[in-house]
Design a protein that fits this description.
Elements (H helix, E strand, L loop, with lengths): L1 H19 L7 H25 L5 E7 L3 E5 L3 H26 L4 H23 L4 H19 L5 H31 L13 H4 L3 H16 L10 H4 L5 H9 L3 H16 L1 H4 L3 H23 L3 H22 L2 H32 L15 H15 L5 H15 L3 H29 L19 H19 L2 H11 L4
Antiparallel strand pairs: 1-2
Helix pairs in contact: 1-2, 1-4, 2-3, 3-4, 3-10, 3-15, 3-19, 4-5, 5-6, 6-8, 8-11, 10-15, 11-14, 13-14, 13-18, 14-15, 14-17, 14-18, 15-16, 15-17, 15-19, 15-20, 16-18, 16-19, 17-18, 17-19
Length: about 500
């Protein structure tokens, strides 16, 4: 039963997308109802699976030997990631309907778009429910293949170049990650994800530094999708994709899969007891602290709204990796908090940016002057997401940043404590690049001529506003009532679930 349900939620989004290519609908509304129905059904089935709780390891295919098999398992970490994915995806699909109606080539490529858009849902759930490193690696590679067509959807020169860069970077990262997989086969008791790691210390002998080097390689390999410096230039360029794509790239599907894979690599494969206090930990901590500050600094300079948000993602993804690299249960709990809460904040901000594009054709910061008067709901929602990303108390962003700082001070790691300074600098820069958009929208200046804003500029329809409103509710509810979330994440981080 559990196995069948796992396979169903992984395969159903793909099957629904394939069937879409052959069905004929009376009108666009009927087609949209069909797409939303099978995505929502998949989410409900996933909730049933999550409600049943952790599962035992289920071996699907054995390739060669006891270590090389394709297996599925749902543990605490997988529950967190799958829950995030399954909650955000139907809302993203609902938002995508009016957005894609504004795409100049949407009628031609819409069915293909939704084939890959929903297939990505299933592949991401496959990553969440992978029982070992080999299975996760296969889904991880498949994720690249199903998201490249989404990045190049518009088929413009910029989109083709961006998709090519994303593809090449992902292939290079996968090669590094594959090296880590090979060494786990040789020096690990198994490839199965086990809290605390699977390395056989008796086999390592004097090769500890070699294994640490391999860990760094694998970390940076998975870190390509997590946008770690210096392998992050593909992410801002991928902003040429339709906003429903970039929102999921930044909020859950791609970058969060990279962060999730690094969590598995660190806590469930190599193990923190082996890594903590080593040169590898300090080297990677230095890289992610630099990435935190670098991403925010570039966001301040960027004038294109979606690229500004992309640089913000680069910074915030390294918040998650910062918590992972503290290598304590408190650090992992803080990382899980930020992985989930950032997903809500970032998808909300990207969807607001998408509304600006569809309703007002505004792509740059200077183009949104005075627009809050014509789009009051969108800019009110964007303001809340901006405050949350800054870490204002009472919103979810404060909760995750607080727990990350708390974990850093409790770790007795000098570099982690220094990293808290990076978090503070990042918060200041976030205030600059997010509030500058808000201020220009609400206060364009006394001499601003509102007659420049053409009459078509207005808030979008309910299909866009409903997901955005729910995101605002989530940001506030989590901000003021975070205890159940933090308690669950702490249990997962401690290996109790």
């Amino acid at each position: 039963m559990i196995f069948d349900l796992m396979l169903t939620v992984i395969l159903l989004p793909f099957a629904g997308g394939v069937l879409l290519q052959f069905l004929r609908f009376r009108d666009k509304g009927q087609k949209q109802r069909y797409i939303f129905a099978y995505v929502l059904l998949n989410t409900l089935l996933t909730y049933v699976l999550l409600w049943q709780g952790p599962t035992e390891l289920i071996r699907v295919i054995n390739f060669a030997g006891a270590k090389l098999d394709f297996s599925l398992k749902l543990d605490g970490l997988g529950i967190v990631f799958a829950g995030l994915v399954s909650t955000l995806w139907p809302l993203a699909v609902l938002y995508s309907f009016p957005y894609m109606e504004h795409e100049h080539n949407g009628r031609v490529h819409e069915n293909i778009f939704y084939l890959f858009y929903t297939a990505t849902y299933g592949v991401t759930l496959g990553i969440a429910m992978s029982g070992n490193m080999l299975t996760m690696y296969c889904f991880y590679e498949l994720l690249t293949l199903v998201t490249v067509p989404l990045v190049m959807h518009t088929l413009t020169k910029e989109a083709v170049l961006a998709s090519r860069k994303y593809f090449y970077y992902s292939l290079g990262g996968a090669a590094f990650a594959f090296i880590g997989l090979i060494f786990l086969v040789v020096y690990g008791d198994s490839l199965t994800f086990v809290y605390g790691g699977v390395l056989n210390l008796s086999q390592i002998g004097g090769k500890k530094d070699l294994l640490l080097f391999i860990y760094v390689l694998a970390f940076m390999g998975f870190g390509v999708k997590a946008a770690v410096c210096p392998f992050n230039s593909w992410l801002p360029q991928a902003g040429v994709a339709p906003t429903p794509v970039t929102a999921l790239l930044h909020a859950v599907a791609v970058v969060k899969s990279g962060a999730f894979a690094i969590m598995r690599l660190t806590y469930y494969s190599f193990g923190t007891d082996f890594l903590r206090g080593t040169w590898a930990q300090y080297l990677l901590l230095g890289i992610v602290i630099f990435t935190i500050v670098y991403g925010c600094s570039m966001a301040v300079r960027e004038t294109h709204i979606k690229r500004r948000l992309a640089f913000s993602t680069i910074s915030n993804l390294s918040y998650i990796l910062f918590g992972v690299l503290i290598m304590t249960p408190l650090g992992l709990a803080g990382a899980l908090c930020h992985m989930v809460f950032h997903g809500v904040m970032k998808i909300c901000s990207f969807f607001c940016a998408g509304a600006m594009i569809t309703q007002a054709h505004a792509n740059f910061v200077h183009e949104i002057d005075g627009m809050a008067k014509r789009m009051p709901k969108i800019f009110a929602i964007f303001t809340v997401s901006a405050l949350a990303l800054m870490g204002v108390p009472g919103l979810c962003g404060f909760v995750s940043k607080w727990h990350l700082a708390k974990a850093a001070f409790a770790s007795d790691n000098v570099l982690a404590v220094v990293g808290v300074g990076g978090l503070l600098v990042s918060a200041l820069l976030t205030a600059i690049y997010m509030l500058s958009i808000v201020i220009r929208a609400y206060f364009p200046g006394n001499d601003f001529d509102y007659g420049k804003l053409h009459g078509e500029i207005c808030d979008p329809d309910w299909r866009m506003l409903l997901p955005l409103s729910l995101f605002v509710v989530l940001m506030v509810v989590i901000g003021v009532y975070s205890a159940p979330f933090v308690a669950f994440f702490s249990s997962v981080a401690g290996g109790m679930i």
